[in-house]
Automatic annotation (TrEMBL):
Record organism: Microvirga aerophila
Keyword field contains Cell membrane: no
Catalytically driven reaction(s): ATP + H2O = ADP + phosphate + H(+); Couples ATP hydrolysis with the unwinding of duplex DNA by translocating in the 3'-5' direction
The name this protein goes by in its record: DNA 3'-5' helicase
Alphabetized UniProt keyword annotations: ATP-binding, DNA-binding, Helicase, Hydrolase, Isomerase, Nucleotide-binding
Gene3D superfamilies in UniProt: 1.10.10.160, P-loop containing nucleotide triphosphate hydrolases, PCRA, domain 4
Protein encoded by which gene: pcrA
Region annotation (Disordered) ranges: 666-694
Length: 760
């Protein structure tokens, strides 16, 4: 029955309204992007409270992020007033789990002030556990154990519940034992990791049914947003809580399941219908977010996936602007084009807060951030640190700061034992003592200390070696470009190697970021000016009220919406991401496609896809081809944008050789344009562009000759090469990947082979 005194219901369509009013029993809202699932949840909460079915503290509502929880609280408040502030149980699985666990900590062997370990501490602890077992941590790294244990925890499995075959996965069958030892250590430390926040709740409830019952009674109604991305532990947690009253309402979209790699299981959708018999399943089909072209493009794209439940979506919105597809020469050009479009939108009074740039991997952010800083466009990075604030970038910068300015104590301290080289706290203490007493920088103190017997022989010789290395690295800049210096320092210090040996999920991303850092340095005349640029970027921190462009990964964009969405990097290899394809095959491809679908469906009015014809992937320039996802888009809904008129590649249209939307085999005319491009910029014009070009792919008769930095050099003494900084020269000697070159103008220099092109 329609109660006219409930004005908030009038803003809903009949299906949404049914979902709000079906308050009793299990409800599953399975619906596409922008159909109002989150709005249904919000209204449902308001409705439960407004009709007196529940007090705010009797409602459990789970969102995917803390930000989403804040927004939901605000929206409920705007509908029913400040009474909504009483919602104590609105948050993420982690925040709610923490709260429950603190109340009963002693029952699971913790104190209520337990600490929640971050990833770093978690790894440190695992390492100790591994070593205590007498296992070689180099062979069986802590990160590998961490992902194994996280995987078990995601599936709700405690140390005693691991299926027979699986414990053998680590250190010849000792995975399970290490898991137990790790949990014991956590308890001793009065600590938990993220996985425990739910797992310990499950144990608590299993072992203390009376407490479970308390919560089952308390939570009269339960609601879950982004249900498609829950993992098994979360599902079990929900199921236990909801078992008594069964008032559980989950909303989700199988086409937006993008956390499979983190243990999320779309199967939870099927499980729900199975475990909660009589569940009402409601489908919402009207999209309220996007204009027709955007919605149609996104729908056709996702229809190429085989594993999906399938759905129809419609909009009553106008066709609007077509989805644009813009080809750029390289990633820097791409960032420039995006910057121009943002400026144009801003000039037409579009709010920057309504613009988002969504990237596939975080390493893509660096060039875009730099461009935005150059243009003075305020931006924020959502869901992660800015590029230069990432741990691996800060480490690398610390190395470079010491090379540039040995007296930089903070930097020295940051990297003196990264990677671990046995210069731990004891050594640092000795250095500090002397530095303070003698009022000299740490490096200075170190130089003195290694001549004494203050340190044991091993750290002493290690420290001496490190100081020698720093001395050598400081001199490199006399003969090398700053990028070459950086690359050499990161390699010789063992820093790159540390991440290469690392088996954790994020190691590859960190290596990509490091390569991106080295590459970004090419655009600066010297190390000093590069470091100054970095400190400027780090400072560009506008006040919180400034309207800003949002920059984030596609993963972080879930649930959000913006008038204009820029989608750079739609190239094979990057997106779909090669690693996802290699590791998970077709399932990986389909998850990538869902990610593309999430990206497109964030846009209300404008979706702008970009790809670059040249991009560095894993440090190598590649001539790239547009993503197969570009092919997936229906011609009627897209517009292929020409490059700006003042930016032609020798008169060749960038799409001349590309037959758009005609299957997946088209190739950009890379080599032709590479030639044309070179000839048009050989006037030594735009230096950043030139520097991008210099490490560009070397094209011989249309074939890409990729050059690897680490591999044995293909260069021979006597060969002619071209170096960006020093010009042409003749190779005198080859030593691994280092070349001694007699440059025609600059004289004899030592350079890295990856920084020169072979000539004729
Ligand atoms: P996603 O799957 O991306 O999370 P969603 O299904 O949660 O999307 P919402 O974010 O709830 O969708 O809604 C999308 C947009 O449509 C919001 O701006 C919302 O305010 C609007 N909207 C939803 N339902 C209606 C409606 N009945 N009338 C008008 N606008 C609506
Ligand atoms: Mg939503």
């Amino acid at each position: 029955a329609v109660a006219p005194q409930l004005p908030y219901l009038s803003g809903l369509n009949p299906e949404q309204r049914a979902a709000v009013e079906a308050t009793e029993g299990p409800v599953l809202v399975l619906a596409g992007a922008g159909t109002g699932k989150t709005r249904v949840l919000t209204t449902r909460i308001a409705h439960l409270i407004a009709t007196g079915r529940a007090q705010p503290h009797q409602i459990l509502a789970v969102t995917f992020t803390n930000k989403a929880a804040r927004e939901m609280r605000e929206r409920v408040t705007s509908v029913i007033g400040p009474v909504a502030e009483g919602m104590q149980w609105l948050g993420t699985f982690h925040s709610i789990g923490t709260k429950i666990l603190r109340r009963h900590a002693e029952l699971v062997g913790l104190r209520s002030d337990f600490t929640i370990l971050g990833t770093d501490d978690q790894l440190r602890l695992m390492k100790q556990v591994i070593e205590a077992e007498g296992i070689d941590e180099k062979r069986w790294p802590a990160r590998q154990l961490a992902s194994l244990i996280d995987g078990w925890k995601n599936r709700g499995l405690g140390p005693n519940q691991i299926p027979a075959g699986e414990a053998g996965a680590f250190a010849s069958g000792r995975g399970g034992k290490l898991y137990t030892a790790y949990q014991d250590r956590l308890k001793t430390l009065n600590a938990v990791d993220f996985g425990d926040l739910l797992l310990e709740c499950l144990r608590l409830w299993r072992e203390h049914p009376d407490i479970l019952e308390q919560y089952q009674n308390r939570f009269r109604y339960m609601l879950v947003d982004e249900y498609q991305d829950t993992n098994v532990a979360q599902y079990l947690w929900l199921r236990l809580l909801a078992q008594a009253r069964k008032n559980l309402c989950c909303v989700g979209d199988d086409d937006q399941s993008i956390y499979g790699w983190r243990g999320a299981e779309v199967d939870n959708i099927l499980r729900f219908e199975h475990d909660f018999s009589g569940a009402v399943v409601i489908r919402l089909e009207r999209n309220y977010r996007s204009t027709a072209h955007i919605l149609s493009a996104a729908s056709v794209l996702i229809s190429k996936n085989q594993s999906r439940l399938g759905k129809t979506l419609r909009t009553e919105d106008e066709p609007g602007e077509k989805v644009t597809i813009t080809g750029a020469w390289d990633s820097e050009d791409e960032a420039r084009l995006i910057g121009e479009e943002i400026e144009a939108l801003h000039a037409k009074k579009h709010s920057l807060a309504e613009i988002a740039i969504l990237v596939r991997i975080s390493a893509q952010m660096r060039e875009i951030e730099d461009r935005l800083v150059t243009l003075g466009v305020p931006y924020r990075v959502i869901g992660g640190p800015r590029f230069y604030e990432r741990a691996e970038i800060r480490d690398a910068l610390a190395y470079l700061r010491v090379v540039n300015q040995p007296a930089d104590d903070l930097a020295f301290e940051r990297i003196v034992n990264v990677p671990k080289r046995g210069l731990g706290d004891a050594t640092i203490q000795v250095l500090h003592n002397h530095a303070r007493a003698a009022r000299v920088p740490l490096v200075e103190a170190a130089r003195f200390i290694v001549e004494t017997d203050e340190l044991k022989p091993k750290p002493r010789s290690t420290l001496r070696d490190l100081l020698t290395s720093f001395g050598r690295w400081s001199k490199l800049s006399e003969t090398m470009t700053q990028s070459e210096v950086a690359q050499t320092v990161l390699e010789e210090s063992g820093y790159t190697d540390m991440w290469q040996k690392d088996k954790s999920a994020d190691a590859a991303g960190r290596l990509e970021n490091l390569k991106e850092l080295v590459r970004s340095m090419e655009e600066f005349p010297d190390l000093q000016s590069f470091l100054e640029h970095v400190s400027l970027v780090m400072e560009a921190n506008e006040s919180d009220t400034t309207e800003r462009v949002s920059l984030m990964t596609l993963h972080a964009a879930k649930g959000l919406e913006f008038d204009t969405v820029f989608l750079p990097g739609w190239e094979e290899g990057l997106f779909p991401n090669q690693r996802a394809l290699d590791e998970s095959g077709r399932a990986g491809l389909e998850e990538e496609r869902r990610l593309a679908h999430v990206g497109l469906t964030r846009a209300r009015r404008r979706a702008k896809i970009f790809f670059a014809s040249n991009r560095r992937i894993h440090g190598l320039w590649n001539s790239t081809i547009p993503s197969r996802f570009v092919d997936d888009l229906p011609e009627a809904d897209v517009e292929v944008v020409e490059a700006p008129a003042n930016f032609s590649y020798g008169g060749t249209s960038r799409f001349d050789r590309m037959a758009p939307f005609s299957g997946s085999s088209y190739q950009t005319p890379g080599w032709q344009r590479a030639q044309a491009h070179r000839s048009t910029t050989d006037d030594g014009g735009y230096s950043a562009r030139r520097s991008g070009d210099r490490r560009g792919p070397m094209m011989i008769e249309g074939e890409l000759v990729a050059k690897s930095t680490g591999a044995a050099s293909s260069f021979k003494a006597g060969g002619r090469v071209l170096h960006s900084k020093f010009g042409p020269g003749t190779i005198e000697a080859v030593d691994g990947n280092k070349l001694t070159v007699e440059f025609d103008k600059a004289g004899r220099k030592m350079v890295l082979d990856s920084f020169v092109d072979a000539m004729g």
